[in-house]
Amino acid sequence: MADSEEILQWYILGGVDEIYADEPYNALAAENKRPCEPAVVNQSRSPQVLYQTSAAAQRPATTLLAQSNNSACNNAREVCAAAQSLEELKAVMERFEGCSLKFSANSTVFGYGSPHADVMLIGEAPGADEDMQGKPFVGRSGQLLTKMLAAIGLKREECYITNILPWRPPGNRTPTNGEVAVCLPFLQRQIELVRPKYIFLLGGSAANAVLDNAESISRLRGHVIDYKTSDGLIIPALASFHPAYLLRTPQQKAKAWSDFLRLQRNLSEI
Ligand code: URA
After folding, report:
1. Long-range CB contact pairs, 150-155, < 8 A, 24+
2. How many angstroms separate the CA atoms of 265 and 270, rounded?
């Protein structure tokens, strides 16, 4: 008979790498079915963090889901605008419950690095290592990113590194448009508070979310594109391949290297 370690390995091989509860839960059993429970928005005048009534709520009808996502986006924008420092924003993000990814993640992975950084690097979402350690880009792709930064004379700690989503999507699946929309105000506020001189976007998801377009990363990289904050500041942005993609496709490293060199050159001209 297999011992418990072998059983765990078997689960991990099958892609089950998260434990949601101590006991198995049959979501299909009749007694576990719940009525729809859309998110609730506090209507008071000062912005309050949105709380969902239940993490295990059944998927509501599409219109209700869209409405609750819309409320969550409005709520995120409101609470983010009220945050006057990165510390306040981090506290708000940790209390925010308008994105269901929060309930399957171990940590809320806020941005890391210098609050006065010249360069802000933006990835997609925490992976398993980031979720365990609570910091962005600390796994294999983070190690490659750190090496590429060092090669252009930048230390990780001198930059500000963050993601579009602060919570790991289960099994590293691609985030949905709704999840990106709810989390975007947190990223936009980080940009406004850090006010970097350059934004460097890692991968197509980050580039599309920040630049609000649907172009492929192959077409976006290699150009400087202006990003405009809500208070009118224009920050030049460069996009490149995601380090995880470079680990899988090392033949693209030469192009990524030329993007990093361009960043180095542009920074030296500021
Ligand atoms: N991939 C990302 O996009 N972000 C991380 O923080 C780690 C891996």
Report:
1. 151/257, 151/260, 152/260, 152/261, 152/263, 152/264, 153/264, 154/119, 154/264
2. 9
For residues 21-53, one letter each, b for 16 or more C-beta atoms within 10 angstroms of the residue's C-beta and e for the rest, the string is eeeeeeeeeeeeeeeebbbebeeeeebebbebe
For residue 105, which of 136, 126, 124, 75 has the smallest C-alpha distance? 126
126 CA from centroid of ligand 1 (Å):
5
Closest residue by CA, ligand 1 atom 7:
137
Backbone angles phi, psi at 168, to 5 degrees: -70, 125
Confidence of residue 270 (pLDDT cuts 50, 70, 90): confident
CA of 242 to the centre of ligand 1 (A): 9
pLDDT for 44 equals: 46
pLDDT greater at residue 44 or residue 80:
80
Q: What are the backbone angles phi and psi of residue 88, rounded to the nearest 5°?
A: -65, -40
Predicted structure pTM score: 0.80
Tell me the CA–centroid distance for residue 130 and ligand 1, in Å.
7
